[in-house]
Fold this sequence. Notes:
Elements: H1 7-26, H2 33-39, H3 54-82, H4 87-95, H5 98-102, H6 109-113, H7 122-142, H8 148-168, H9 172-189
Amino acid sequence: MHTPPSRREATHERIVDVAARALRRNGYAGVGVADVMKQAGLTHGGFYAHFASREALLAEAIERAGRDSAANMQRRVETGLARGHSAFRSVVESYLSEAHLRGVEAGCLVAAVGSEMPRQSPELLAPSAERVRALIALVQRSLPQGTPEQAMAVVATLVGSLQLARTLGVNAQGKAMLKAAREALLAQHDTP
């Protein structure tokens, strides 16, 4: 039997959820305690009842964003498999989709803040690096007889293509970037 979360636990989860969305939308530096607490419908003063520091909040937000992204990707893979697509095709088509191009706030943390990850404190670098490793592992599981090196190359293509497409914008150029990367990855790795 599942015990419902206490009010304190539910509040903590709401704060982490708001911070995870803000992290993907604004980057590490763009996540302020006051703004997160306000968006969560709470006062700034209640923050330290839940977290020892802003970095502790960000570490949890990184993990939450990663878990959410992985769960979303798993649902998309299952949908693709039900339609007769390979797991790899499902990953590639989902990751390099127009919805993901538009959806920074709910999308992949690695693509949203990847260029900022190496400049973070050790407390934030460790969970950030774990998100990269988890994405590589997900891709490797989807590749037929895929090696870790192939999975790393695919992840680099996925993340880089999405970042560049977002830079170009939700327009013909951004969509063309995604399409080119999708087609190249599928031609190279997807077996019918």
